[in-house]
Structures are given as structure tokens and as C-alpha cells.
Amino acid sequence: MRFSAFALLSLVSVAFAGNCGPQNGNAKCAATECCSQYGWCGTTVDHCDAKTCLHPFSGASSSCKPTQTTMKTSATKPATSPATTFPTAVPEIDVCGHAQGGVTCPGAGASGYFYRCCSSAGHCGPKNDIQDQALYCGSGCQAGFGKCDNQKAPAEPTAPKGTSGAGETCGPIVNKKCAAGLCCSGSNFCGTGEDFCGRGKLHPNETDPNTKFFRCIQCKSITPLLMDRTTVTLPDELPWWRWKICMRRLEKEASEFWLVRLQTLPHSGWFREIPQDWDADRQVKEIKTHVRYDDAVKFMDVPRKVWAMLPYGFSLDNPVESPEALALEECLSGELKRLSVQRKLFNTKEILDHMAAVGRDALKPVVVQDASARLGNPVTPPGYEAYRDFLCEWTARGVLMCPMGRMSILEFLRNMDKNNEKAWWKDVGDVFFDP
């Protein structure tokens, strides 16, 4: 019982969440910790600086001792420099505001630019020179728990950058970069994996205002159930995704598709068995004399996984299985229908380039705090733009290679010959090309 009473007394007298001083209920730090001028407990040089530390709220065994400088009154020495001195270390805690027990953002780095504003979601920032300060210091900023201003970002330090190892701090506050093979996270720590190098662990239902999301502004029917995926595999992480079908494989694949189409020409459906008197090789050779083989290549160099994307959705092992891809499929299918009304002529390269461009225009990086308005994955440069370009290109090909589409490749190629090597797209799903 005596232990419980002592523990309770300690919780009352020692700073909540490591904070201290008059702005934190006159809380006092632990015995060996100093209370900094910003109300944070710690044992670093910044916390225990005799010129700025708060002795009445520091621990009895701490190195924060009253000195002649700290005891001077304003009549003897007006306060000047301490107000403009900020920690040069990354704060251990970045939460703030009403919901966090009244924690105030301390400010860090040059002129206290970093970790100075408390966002509406209760986080101190900006944390680095990449984040937009408006996300923390703009709308919704909690004025009573830090600054809510617009400052000019500090200049790049002139001193050479140091190097930090795994678990150590990095970024502009400490003027250090991570060692080879490590990434500096948004919270200024070195490490590997998604938390440091990837999209992070944010989910669409979170309200952290410092995260931009790619959103398809033209797609209105994507439901929140399709927004659960939070990681994206970049193209360079999937070598086979860059893979182009070699000529021998291409000829085999093209022959198979042309063969299947020839089976359906005189009939209303698919053949389960090839007629015994049907000479596939002869038929394929005859087809090749009537169509432009190079144009067929533009269709056939699509990975087999992409062929099955539409209209049945995306397989779980497909790298384009993501909310963006689902939105793009809808967007590009709609664009294809729009073009069919205009009856505009395209060749294969033009239609693919056009559809990919429409996809890139549809995906815009936006800042949204409403979960229902988000789509897809956080934007973490570098890499996402390249992923988006790949996604648009292959989704465009997937739209054109849907089951009804690939059954009509032959008609499309023949129409190209009839229309100065161009053909028009009639519709998606029913009669895909102009008969």
C-alpha cells in the first residue's frame, strides 16, 4: 500500500509525458532531469543549459543549477538571446494540444522553424524541409500550444552534413544524412523498410494533415472498402513488370489469340475443342498477310496478368491491384466510351498515349483530411510519379485488352488498313470495335 501511494505521488509531482514548468501545471522533472526553457524534461545539453533551464522545476540531482546569469533580474540584464535559442536535437515527442494534456510544441532547428506549430490533429511540425508548413501552421493550428505563423524556411546549413546510423536522428535539424542503405523518415530517424523508405503505415481513415494522397478526381463510385491498401510496389521492385515478351514468345502469344479469334468468327461463342479439320498454322499465316504485325506487337507485349484485369477486377498478386488502378480502370473506360461517341480515329500508339495521358491527368496529388475523399496511397517522393506513369500506361493497355477487346484485335487491325492505318473505338464490352 505504501508503494502504491508513493507511485501515485510520483505521478502527480513528476511531469506528465515528460513535460514540466509553469505551462505544464508547475510539474517537476525526475531527480536527474533538467526542465528546459520550453518545458521539456531531459538530460541533454539543451535541457540543462544553465542560462536557460528552469531550476525550480528541474530534479534535485540534475545539472541545472541556479547561476548568477539565471538569477539576474530584467533590470540588470534584459532578456534577449534565450528567446531565440532553440534545440538542435530532434524532439522525442511530437504530440501537442488539448488532447495531449496541453503539450506545447518546443520549436527546433534554425530560428525554431521545425516542430513549432501544433496542427489540428495534435502533431508538431513541420518536421523537415519537405513538409509544407501550412499543414501544421495553417487552418486548424492550435494557437495556444505553439506558434501559428508563416515563416521563411531556413537556409541550407553551410556546414558539411554528418552521417547517422540506424536509429539515429537525421535531417535539417541535426544537419545529418543517413548512411548508405538507410532512409531518413518523416520523423527524422534513419532506418529501413516501409516506415522509413516507403509509403508508411498511414491508413485512409487517419487524419494526419501532413500527408498528400493521389486521388482520381473523375472517379466518384470508388467506395471506402477499396481504399484499404496502403502500400504500393514500385516498378523497380518488380523486374518482371518491366519485362517485354521476347519475339519467340510474342509470336506464340499472338498466334494463340489470333487462333482463338478465328475459332469464334463463324460461331456465336467460344470453342472448347478445335475442329479436327482446322489448320491453325495456315490460318495464322493468312492473317499475317492482311494485318500489320508491328501494330499487334503493341498489344501483345502486355504481361499476362494484365490481360485478365477487366472486367473481373484485379488479381491479388497484380502490382496494379490498388485503389488507384481501380479508379483508373473506371476513368479510362469512361474515356473510351466518350471517344466512341466522337468516332475519332486512332492508331494503336495514339490510343495508348491518349489513354495514359488521361490517366495521368486524372490522378492529382491532393491534401485531404476527410477519409471519404482519399483514394490510394500517401505520396512519398521519390518514386510515386514513376509508379503513377507505369500504372497509367498498363491500365490503359488493360482497358484495351479486356476480354471483348482482345477477341476483336483482328477486326481492329483490319479497320486500320481500311482507314489509313487507323480505327475507331465503338464501345467497351459489347461490340468493341467498328465491324
Automatic annotation (TrEMBL):
Q: Name one Pfam family in it.
A: Chitin_bind_1
Q: Residue span of the signal peptide, if any? A: 1-17
InterPro entries per record:
Chitin-bd_1, Endochitinase-like_sf
GO molecular function terms here? chitin binding
**UniProt xrefs under CDD domains:** ChtBD1
**Cross-referenced PROSITE patterns:** CHIT_BIND_I_2
Disulfide bonding pattern of the chain = C20-C35, C29-C41, C34-C48
Q: Which UniProt keywords apply?
A: Chitin-binding, Disulfide bond, Signal
Going by the entry's taxonomy, the superkingdom of the source organism is recorded as Eukaryota
For the Chitin-binding type-1 domain, which residue ranges apply? 17-66
Name the chain's protein.
Chitin-binding type-1 domain-containing protein
**Which organism does this sequence originate in?**
Alternaria atra
